[in-house]
Amino acid sequence: MAKILVLDDVLDAAILIKRILQKKGHQVFTFTDEENALEYLLSNTIDLAILDIKLKKMSGVEVLEEMKKITPTLRAIMLTGYPTLETARESLSLGASEYCVKPIDKDELEEKVENVLNA
Length: 119
What we know:
The longest helix is centred in the C-terminal third of the chain and has 13 residues. The protein is α/β, with parallel strands linked by helices. The chain is globular, with a radius of gyration of 13 Å.
């Protein structure tokens, strides 16, 4: 299946997403630090990035921008507990394929991941 990178500053949230997606057969690599996630991407191929918008040092949108410089074809899903139209527009304009609102709904996450991977 797919190789998926998950970046969320809350470790429990990243682990929850990892458990959900591993049950679907995906390989999931979790990060709570932006630099570590970007470093990982420099030397590894991934199919999808799932990024929280609110992080410690950078925003998820900024991380997505940096990831797109490394892998222009990278597909991404943005996560947020604070949905705004502005954030959604910005994420989509930078190439995010989807947008999920926290708390994570298992079925919604699985469906959006499958849709993005099969697009």
